[in-house]
Specification:
With about 150 residues, the protein is an alpha/beta fold. It contains three helices and eight strands; from the N terminus they run βαβαββββαββ. Helix 1 packs across helix 2. InterPro entries: DNA_pol3_chi (IPR007459), PolIII_chi_sf (IPR036768).
Length: about 150
């Protein structure tokens, strides 16, 4: 069964949340693919990964010679030459290609709330999908919601 975690961004920017989640994924020993269609957003995310205080979150932009060795690969598509089992969709744009992964972390902001609700309803109707939603509190912590 595939797990899809919706993360509703309300306080922190996408690159900060992506770095926080990437740190957690790497700590479990898993590999991660971060997908964002916008090249500038991918660069912001990569920079945020390198700048996490006290952490070393090695990452690379997809298409490089060492893609397979990257624990975190940042890409515009869903190919995972690093063998990632988890995909983080940073721009909230769902693709059925995400279904190839064991787990998907789908980030969306307030402007995309209605789209995320519609996607939730669609995915909920499908078999073999476990859905969770996490909302950010004012203090920056996260809580699983309904």
């Amino acid at each position: 069964m595939m797990r899809i975690d919706f993360y509703q961004l309300s306080r922190d920017p996408v690159e900060a949340v992506a770095a926080m989640l990437a740190r957690k994924v790497v700590q479990t020993g898993s590999r991660l693919l971060i997908v964002a269609q916008n090249a500038e957003k991918r660069q912001e995310i990569s920079r945020a990964l390198w700048e996490v205080p006290g952490e070393f979150l090695a990452n690379g932009e997809a298409g490089g010679p060492h893609d397979a060795r990257q624990p975190i690969l940042v890409s515009g598509g869903f190919e995972a030459p690093n063998g990632a089992s988890i995909v983080l969709v940073a721009d909230g744009i769902w693709s059925e290609e995400a279904s190839r992964f064991e787990r998907c972390l789908l980030l969306f902001d307030e402007a995309a709330t209605n789209d995320a609700r519609n996607l939730w309803k669609t995915l909920k109707a499908a078999e073999n999908r476990e859905l969770h939603i996490f909302k950010q509190r004012e203090n920056g912590s996260w809580a699983e919601g309904a």
